[in-house]
Amino acid sequence: MERGGGRHWTDDEVRALLCVWADRRVRERLKCTLRNKSIFQEMARQMQRNFGVIRNWKQCRTKYKNLKYDYKTAKSAHAVGGSGAGGPGKYMKFFDEVEAILLDRGLDNGTMEMQKRLYDEEMGAGRLQTPASESEVVIEIDDGMYSVCSKYSSFVFKG
């Protein structure tokens, strides 16, 4: 029998969870029910179907709860530290995204807006933002440059 724990979540897996959680219907269902196994089962299916992330419903529920807890902890730490201590994001990765979800801020189009938010952040860091198509292989180089090699053409360098 498989247990719920085990593997740490990668940033890409967390991004996938955030994108699914950002969907207005998912947020509304999570707000109005305590028996939410079926919601997390659907979230796990969407993560696999849309992002290729394989996690079971228990793992999704645990990560969801941990993200909410970490958000509240970071918010409290920032409040205690005052405004000169840096933003709450200093204490938690994906703070702004979780806050947007929890406060229903700027997510009228849910998943699409969350994807744009998450991938714009990646672009600002100089990394690839959109997943490569099935016909491409992405090779990331240490200095932040990357190249895309298509099955049908030569290397394309981007920076």
UniProtKB/TrEMBL annotation:
Residues covered by the Myb/SANT-like DNA-binding domain: 7-100
Entry superkingdom: Eukaryota
Any Pfam family: Myb_DNA-bind_4
Protein name: Myb/SANT-like DNA-binding domain-containing protein
